[in-house]
Amino acid sequence: MAKVLCVDWDERVSARVAESLSDAGHQCVLETRGDRACDAVLRHSPDVVVMEVMLPGICGFEVCRRIRADRTLYTLPVVLVSSMDSDEEVRHGLAQGADDYIPKPFEPGLLVSRLQAVLAGVNGLREPEPMTGLAGHRLTKYEIHHRICVRKPFALACLELANLVQFGRAAGETARMKTLRHAADLMRKCGVALGDPDFLCAHMGAGHFVALLAPENANRYCGLIFKAWQDGQEALYKSLGVAHAIRQFEMGGGLPGGIPPVQTLVYCTGNRSVIGSSAQECFEILGDIRSHARNTGAGIYCDRRTR
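Now predict its structure.
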């Protein structure tokens, strides 16, 4: 059972939502004004907030931004609901830090299922990922939203093991997992070397790792992580028992029987102004840099926002 704070100016809608959530086993607390929503969060300590966008006092977008800016609340899930259902409005709502955006009118069952999906996504949010020991993708996105909302400049660096799938198929699942753990250890150790109090590294899934850090440390960190990977490759492959197969692959031009070495890309963007940006925009910029990097080859790619 979850405690849900429902914020909606229309008490009839709130009553129907509360009934549906109660039938699904959840407890619902009601509020009607946006300017009282944050106080209600502090008073009731809900597990999730379901909130109308158009509210008396302040709008749901602003309430969401205030939640993401508060260091004690910034990981609280927020689901926005609204009759403003254009793609632009949905995108804007998610850019404010909302976990989901449901257009009105909606079926009660849809709200319950979407709410449960959001709650499942934050289960164990602060626990390190078992395989890598790093933070997960959802906590990282909350952290980005928090830094944007408090207007704290940051850089976002990515280490990608570009052909991890092909390497895993040839070398085996155990080798793939050990390679992931090796990359995670390098990300963590290089971050410690910076002495950056705001450093956070995370595994985003597959062969993708990201680090949040101060913009002035971005270029140095990218250099450290790329060099650490290059310097440690031989020892890694020996420990995996695939060094000979990798040499065979390199000498034979990819002939059968060899194993392709892991190709690494390091790319980075920064956010110094942080005004009018979102976590999604940050990852879209990284995606553009990644496309260029994959077409160019292994190396370090940093855009001007880190300078």
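The chain has a mean pLDDT of 91.
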